[in-house]
């Protein structure tokens, strides 16, 4: 089992886990498990929910993995496994908690064999290895969901760009490029509260504000990518995360607006690996 690790992706609303074959650097079939999370729950409830999915994944294959590698949004002390998320509407109970130690205790697993990495970094690492940007050595990645994740590739290795808090328009980037923006902006325009972008697409397609909100988002995203490109000078970008499920309503416009700003057509690709990107990126980057 020394060539098999467990990769997990913990987001703002879910956890997904699968066993990864390090020799092949791909997901072992029929080992993936996923569950929704109450991210405002107490510490022990959150840790137990994570541990349950990890245990279910382990039980789908003979033996026990040598390592557990977890993709997790920041801010966080990744080396020591201490969560630093606060005032983001998620995981408030985990602030300043050593989640690595707590998870190790709950799983009866060595804390030395559990690692945390930034989720956007894992996403981009996976896409570079076997996804939309396979083999590329100079690229950027964005994960669009409950928060905004950003990463860049340098010499074949992915790093956290940490641009979610970059000053942007009248606030920070994540204020305008996240599920939160869609929820707040649609309520402002339509006086209707939505749960997330999926809710918007599924249940409010006929709203007179549906087209305009995606047009506005496309412009926001293009402006942000333009600033990101100017910082890192990549050859291409890849986009993932839950909001990408609605790509039909914003991605072409984003490319168009970005081309107008850049003066040429810059490659902005959608993730081909989806959730698998972060799992493979986490597992294969040990």
Automatic annotation (TrEMBL):
Pfam families: ROK. Coiled coil: none annotated. SUPFAM superfamilies: Actin-like ATPase domain. It comes from the Bacteria. InterPro entries: ATPase_NBD (IPR043129), ROK (IPR000600). Belongs to the ROK (NagC/XylR) family. This is ROK family protein.
